[in-house]
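To make this tangible, we now present a fold written out as tokens:
***
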Amino acid sequence: MGTIICQTCNSTIDHFENEKVSTLYGKCTCCDEKQQKTSK
């Protein structure tokens, strides 16, 4: 089982089934919306 973690706020976004245990980094929708508002 793996975990997807937000690289901005370090909150857990989701879990996924995989052969290997791993951690992936992405952006949660909360941080993604904040970034879009500040970049406009």
User: Anything to note?
Assistant: The mean pLDDT is 82. Strands lie at 2-6, 12-16, 23-26.
